[in-house]
Design brief:
Blueprint lengths: L1 H10 L6 H9 L4 H17 L5 H7 L3 E2 L8 E5 L8 E5 L4 E3 L1
Antiparallel strand pairs: 1-2, 2-3, 3-4
Helix pairs in contact: 1-2, 1-3, 2-4
């Protein structure tokens, strides 16, 4: 997990945000099972500019979608808590989509 924290620190605008960001990621639903893929997906969203660390820290990381059960689909918000800012993660494939 320390390795992921170092990668996250390199992606965020302020290294001081790395620890709070990782704390939020660890609070994701089903993190024990899907933590690696959830972390990698958020790193991609931050790296490509879709999300900011501040978005994840304020809103939270991945929440399990109850409407898409039984598939392991999670969602988060980047840029505001509206439907247009909702991103989904398919934990089986690692695909992130809107």
């Amino acid at each position: 997990m320390r390795y992921l924290l170092l990668i996250i620190a390199s992606l965020v605008s302020s290294p001081a945000l790395a620890d709070p960001l990782m704390d939020e990621i660890k609070r994701s639903d089903d993190f024990a099972k899907y933590g690696k893929i959830q972390t990698e997906a958020l790193m991609r969203l931050i790296d490509n500019g879709t999300c900011k660390a501040e978005d994840i820290i304020s809103v939270g990381a991945w929440y399990r979608s109850t409407s898409k059960k039984p598939a392991p689909i999670f969602f988060t918000y980047c840029g505001g808590m509206t439907v247009k800012n909702r991103y989904y993660l398919d934990a089986r494939t690692g695909q992130v989509y809107q």
